[in-house]
Hints:
Elements: H1 9-36, H2 41-61, H3 64-82, H4 92-113, H5 125-142, H6 147-152, H7 156-161, E1 175-181, H8 188-199, E2 203-209, H9 219-226, E3 228-234, H10 240-248, E4 252-259, H11 263-269, H12 323-334, H13 347-368, H14 379-403, E5 404-406, H15 408-425, E6 429-434, E7 439-441, H16 442-445, H17 449-463, H18 468-473, E8 480-489, E9 492-499, H19 506-515, H20 528-532, H21 556-565, E10 569-575, E11 579-587, E12 592-600, E13 603-608, E14 612-616, E15 623-626, E16 630-635, E17 638-644, H22 645-648, E18 662-668, E19 671-677, E20 679-687, E21 705-710, E22 716-720, H23 722-728
Parallel strand pairs: 6-8, 13-22, 17-19
Antiparallel strand pairs: 1-3, 1-4, 2-3, 5-7, 8-9, 9-11, 10-11, 12-13, 12-20, 14-18, 15-16, 16-17, 18-19, 21-22
Helix pairs in contact: 1-2, 1-4, 1-15, 2-3, 2-8, 3-4, 3-5, 4-5, 8-9, 13-14, 15-17, 17-21
Amino acid sequence: MAKVEAGMESMLEMYIFETNTLLEQLDEILLRTEDANVFSEEDINEIFRIMHTIKGSSAMMGFENLQHLAHKGEDMFFVIREKPEIAKDAHFVYELIFEVSDLYKAEIEYIQNSGDDDYAPTDFSETFKKLEDATARLKAMESGEQATAASSAPTAQSADTNTAAPTAAADEGAMTVRVFFEDGCKMENLRAFLLLTKIKEEADVISCYPPDVESNADTAKEIVENGFVVTFKGFDNNNDAVIKAIEGAVNVQSYEIIDTPAAQPKQEEKPAEAPAPAAPAQTAAQVQPTAQPAAPAPAAAAQPAQAQPAEENKPAQAKEKSAVAKAQEDIKKANGGQKQSLISVNLSKLDQLHDIVGEIITTESMVIANPDLEGLELESFSKAARQLRKLTDELQDTVMSIRMVPLAGVFQKMGRIVRDMKIKLGKDAELILEGEGTGVDKSIVDNLNDPLMHLVRNCMDHGIESSTAERKALGKPEKAYVKLSAKHSSGEVIITVSDDGAGINCEKVLAKAAKSGLLAKPENEYTKKEIQNMILLPGFSTNEQVTEYSGRGVGMDVVKQNIEQVGGTLTVESEEGHGTSFIIKIPLTLAIVEGMKLQVGATIFTIPISSIKESLMVNDNQILHDTKQGEMIMIRGVCYPILRLHEKFRMPTKITNLEDGILLLVDVGGKNVCLFADRLIGEQPVVVKPFPKYLSQYNIKAEGLSGCTVMGDGTISLIIDVNNLISTN
């Protein structure tokens, strides 16, 4: 990663994670507000919070170009905050903020991939100019093209650090607090800026001193000596929420209240009982940007933190809190009143924990299935073994749940693709999400970004009709849709990417495949489903011209390969004139699977239970012989081919008659086959181990084996990859 200031190295990874998360939230808000064509107050406050946080954390890490990029975007949004309705006629705002988001993501990736001394900050001056021009244009729109009004409008900078003396009317209900940070915490100016951002979630900030904490590092010394003074007015005069925010802020050592809104009326009612005025207390009106703040009041004279306005002095009706404050309260309640309920853990530590659990499961199997115990009646041992199995199952489920990540993050990224293609292709479409809360192992989620992106682009480019007039003529709604859905099903996650477009023209696909030399048998022997799945073949494309999005004959085959690399399958279903669906089936996790052990000769194989539909014993009356597909079996009126594992893997066995062994009906991606083995041994969770590297030259996976596992007696069991096994048969 790029080199940062001394002492900040440990914070870089957290900065990258938090910034990427905030950028995804920003994209989501912009997509939603663009469809609604208006910014709500909550949306604007959330955008400002994101911009503030990114700006402050970038400044803290020393990335000045990213800090100024966020600041320019914030300047532009300040104008919209003053008059949200101008967003209806300012679509250029979305393009610019999306551009800012993309530049931020690219720079973050650059920081991640750069060496210690290789990173050179990107020059964003061209984008700065665009943002400044857009800000000026918005000001002109706000003032109705009147220059005088535009010149008098406040700037975003003044909103951040406005230190003008407030009037008595503006100060009604305001409070001034002086905050001191922990000794030796360093960068007090930036910590003051982050505190200011936190206060803005609960109140309107009237003034602060020093005023330029964000950009002036010299103010750190002044804050150490005299504290950071901020005057604010809580939403509907609820200043207690602000005090709680200050108390909970990181690195805050103490604070003192200089001016309290309820103090004066109380003194007027009981002047005789009012305490003598504290020596040199500084009021909100005295906090001027050019005046040096008074020295901190003595501890005895300063108003203690407990001396807050009484409960009865609070307003009867409190303003509805921001979405951020609500979320924070919900988290706190869910955690039993504790401040923090989530922590960030390095993924490598989770991987290590996962590996240890795998070893525990393997060792447990070795203990319970120890050959020395065979034939012994050990009631106490069996009881303890059952309890151990229960605990290891719970441990496995817990570790897997920790690694589970909702698909919402991946799904929501597709909104940008649909939005951008909608504009460039001139198509009216929307993205529909279903089941985005479905959890999948983190290692699998990381491999889904590219496949889903390609599938969504394919739906937008190939699937959806080129114009609303064409859709209207077909009796369809003018607005098309691309739908992303996910659900759990028997140890798998099924993800469907679908559209309501034109569907797949089988005649066109078959003709293109024949022209490209991709056919393996006569055209009249292909089924409709086989023809539809031809679009997944390498080098296949129905586009005659190469465009920005397709036409090069690459993409869909890569999607299929990427999905198969994580143990998944991809199939296509389409109805011409009604749309297309791409169905992805992937395992919940790759490392630990529930397996069924079966024996073929002297070898033990393991098959994932999620692939098995049923097992059955047969007799000769059920066996059919097909001249092309060989042996087949009729099950409830449906014929299935039989695959003898001992013939497939060339293993000697005494059991060759079908009635002497057992058949397993397996199903992967709609493909069904019956596997013939000597006998079933039983069910057992297994830890998938990859084959040694020196075996990779033999392309074992292509023959239908995905890895191996250690059995309870220490022997090795080969894990069957049913998908590849069926494909190569």
